[in-house]
Fold:
Amino acid sequence: MDGAATVDPMLAVTGLRYEVADRVLLDGVDLTVSAGQSAAVVGPSGSGKSTLLGCLLGLIRPSAGSVQVAGGDIVKMRRRALERHRSRHMGVVFQFGELLPELTPVENVALAALLGGSKAQRAYQRAEELLGELCVPYRGVPTGRLSGGERQRTAVARALINDPAVLLADEPTGALDAATRDSVTEVLFEVTRRHDCALVVVTHDAEVADRADRCWELKNATLVRRDLGGRS
Ligand SMILES: Nc1ncnc2c1ncn2[C@@H]1O[C@H](COP(=O)(O)OP(=O)(O)OP(=O)(O)O)[C@@H](O)[C@H]1O
Structure:
């Protein structure tokens, strides 16, 4: 959908329901995130956080509810339209980066733009800019040779390359040591503000959850607001 930059909230989830086997994993889940804002989703293992993220990405189709991304309801979209919408308006950072280790960081980041339909010169130029902004060194060596933190910053650059309205992160610091975790956390929240994205981060990491504007716990299939040390 064009003109997404003017649509806010960038992400609006309403009445989401999903059941698997005989268990209801999501029931009446509502979540709204505006441009430049962040929401953390926490909860015990098995509570359904990955399932929720799958619904937000359009990889899992809920049995009820809507997921408005940049003004378009992805639940109602057919596969091709959904893939286009996702590539155009959503960026994802996974726990282990999910980058291609043989490609350079520039190639990994540019690839997402090329798949999104960008011209090669523009894709590579933008990839260089983003990697510079996120302080990824050695942009010409295979990504597999970078440190864990550098790889995650490359993954953040890749998530940003198509100027997404919505940024989703699944345990982005889960595989990092404490010092690296802090720098990746900083980058994630900083780019959310600078690039005016709506960020949803699923995390077990209290430090990450604490940085978000809002924190929600997935409990008994619904999202319950968690207090962040007195912040509202
Ligand atoms: N297709 C499926 N068939 C059967 N059970 C499923 C299916 N998908 C998810 N589940 C179950 O639903 C529950 C929620 O899974 P989910 O991966 O969303 O939890 P989670 O909160 O992300 O857990 P973790 O923090 O460990 O990653 C789990 O008990 C899982 O085994």
About this structure: Residues 20-21, 25, 43, 45-51 surround adenosine-5'-triphosphate (CB under 6 Å). The helical segments are 49-57, 79-89, 105-115, 120-133, 148-160, 178-194, 206-211. The chain has seven helices and ten strands. The beta strands are 11-20, 23-33, 38-42, 64-69, 72-73, 90-93, 166-170, 198-202, 214-219, 222-226.
